[in-house]
Amino acid sequence: MTRGLPAGRIGPTEGAVDLPPDDTGEAIGLSASGLTITFGFGPALFRDARGRDRFGIADRQPEALRTLPHFPADVLDPERSYGDLCVQACADDPQVAVHAIRNLARIGFGTVAVRWSQLGFGRTSTTSTSQSTPRNLFGFKDGTANVKAEETSDVAQHVWVADGDDAKAAWLAGGSYLVARRFNMNIEIWDRQSLGDQEDFIGRTKASGAPLSGGTEFTEPDFSMPGSDGPVIPRDAHVRVVHPDFNDGVRMLRRGYNFVDGSDPLGGLNAGLFFIAFMRNPDTQFIPVQNRMAKVDALMEYVKVTGSALFAVPPGIGAGEYVGQALFA
Ligand code: HEM
């Protein structure tokens, strides 16, 4: 499918008329559209709720692969959280991404079942200096200070699990952890805040994404610059709260999507940011930063977290290998 080919060997319309096709057909005529598929393993793949070894791999469970703790503002829907396996399909055309997920779920019928899924659009973060920064549904540029592919030493330090990081989980070296968090935005309340307040909550201007301390989008914020009432980048501004300077130098690769899942019974949009981030160790990266954010970040008044999951993503595969081979072999 990542080469633009059908899911099965026969194809959507070439097989016997009295059998279900081995491809569902909605991608006929579409290109591969940059399709990538990322697999992850959740803590429950290794041990069930009672801690029992489900598939004889419990001794290889990575140390940091545990259910994420409860954070303030978490109102998790268990039906949008957790899971044994994660399958993420990304493509320039949502039809191609949905086709991939649908066909993998169809092929897995009887062995696996879909627990939950989320369709997103308009990736919210740049991950390369060659991309222009997209916007999230609060209307702000998102990804300005993200870890970029070109920052190879930061990618190595903050994104990939290294040899020797976890003696029990050598199979994960070269992989990463994927944190998924469904942030519902209180869109209608946000939209009634003044432009100045919105910019104070983020700590950057809405137009260019420059820090409130001045300059252009990629100017480093000056957190000590005084304003008329405290620092010009407020103490509870998102970019200050999550900035590496206030979080032991920690960074992570954010790679989320916007989502809109229709409207609620009051006519409000059921929408937000499906936050996805990749990192070397959630215990030292995501968990402390999310805790700090949940306690002091001005944004928290405008969001609630309704879904949450953590997965260990094995390294990419070479020709003739299967996903997670080093774990299962
Ligand atoms: C609805 C939820 C969120 C929204 C709307 C949001 C929005 C933003 C925006 C607009 C920026 C500034 C531009 C940029 O550098 O990308 C930013 C930066 C950042 N965000 Fe978030 N964010 C959200 C959740 C989170 C979460 C859950 C985390 C991690 C726990 C996080 C971590 C970061 C980091 C590390 C930066 C870069 C800070 C820096 O180095 O300057 N964000 N976010």
Q: What structural class is derived from the secondary structure elements?
A: alpha+beta
Q: Catalogue the unreliable spans.
A: none
Largest sheet: 6 strands, antiparallel
From the N-terminal CA to the C-terminal CA, the straight-line distance is 25 Å
Q: Which H/E pattern describes the elements?
A: EHEHEHEHHHEEEHEH
Task: Map the helices and strands.
Layout: E1 36-41, H1 43-46, E2 85-90, H2 94-107, E3 121-123, H3 152-158, E4 176-185, H4 187-190, H5 195-202, H6 238-241, E5 253-254, E6 257-263, E7 269-279, H7 286-296, E8 303-313, H8 325-328
Bound molecules: protoporphyrin IX containing FE (HEM).
Q: How does this structure look, described?
A:
This protein is of the alpha+beta class and 329 residues long. The protein has a domain of 220 residues. It has 8 helices and 8 strands, in the order βαβαβαβαααβββαβα. The strands form 2 sheets. Strands 3, 4, 5, 6, 7 and 8 form a 6-stranded antiparallel sheet that branches. Strand 6 and strand 7 form a beta hairpin. The two termini are 25 Å apart. The mean pLDDT is 97. The chain binds protoporphyrin IX containing FE. The site of protoporphyrin IX containing FE has 26 residues, from strand 4, helix 6, strand 7 and helix 7.
